[in-house]
Amino acid sequence: MQVRYKVDASVSEYNDQNLCEKAELEQCPIHPDGGCGIRKHGSYKRVLPATFRIPRWYCHKGHATISKLPDFLPSRFPGTLKDVEDVVVEIQKHPTLVSAADHIRPDIGLQGALRWINRRISYVSTALRASAGLLPEVGFKNLGQLQKIFGVDSVLSHLREILKEHLYALPRIIGLIPPPLTPVGG
């Protein structure tokens, strides 16, 4: 299970300030009333960004680990939200997906590059459609418009903040792995 780790830091600042080790979990999301024996359970390493660690806890009663995912990282996807966003914005500058794939991922074959960029397009499109439904007052068509409307560099990280009440209902990338509907193990 994942919970949001609200940090106002870049990847390098997160590492330099040792924010993984400083993370605290105020209450167990499975047993908010306590009594479950929640304990710090070390951290795990993300493949990308390299040398990046995610803090986690173990709920003894629920037999579950809880990870605290920093706002700048996508859920269940490598890299940062800004990395994903930058790729989608770059794709929009090309006349075709093939042209974008050749430019963005010349290191791999065309079919692999197309799959790589299509995954990012799909996740971002799904996240933006869900966000549009939750924010009907904000009329937008793409990431570039949202960057201007919100005045931010990373729209996806910003959406995680303004849609924090809906994170478990939102799709992969900005959403988080949902908690169980009922407490596990009582």
Reconstruct the topology from this structure.
Elements: E1 2-5, H1 11-16, H2 19-22, E2 39-46, E3 52-59, E4 64-70, H3 81-91, H4 97-104, H5 110-134, H6 143-150, H7 155-162
Parallel strand pairs: 1-4
Antiparallel strand pairs: 2-3, 3-4
Written account of the structure:
This protein is an alpha+beta fold. It folds into two domains: 69 residues, no CATH class; 86 residues, no CATH class. Helices cover 38% and strands 15% of the residues. Strand 3 and strand 4 form a beta hairpin. It is globular and about 55 Å long. The model has no long low-confidence stretch (mean pLDDT 90).
Q: What's this entry about, in short?
A:
The chain is of the alpha+beta class. 38% of the residues lie in helices and 15% in strands. It has 2 domains: 2-70, no CATH class; 81-166, no CATH class.
List keywords for this structure.
single chain; 186 residues; alpha+beta; 2 domains; 4-stranded mixed β-sheet; 4 strands; 15% strand; globular
What is the number of E strands? 4
Mean pLDDT equals 90
Secondary structure: helix percent: 25-40%
Our measurement of the CA-to-CA distance between the termini, rounded to an integer number of angstroms, reads: 17 Å
Query: What series of H and E elements makes up the topology?
Result: EHHEEEHHHHH
Shape: globular
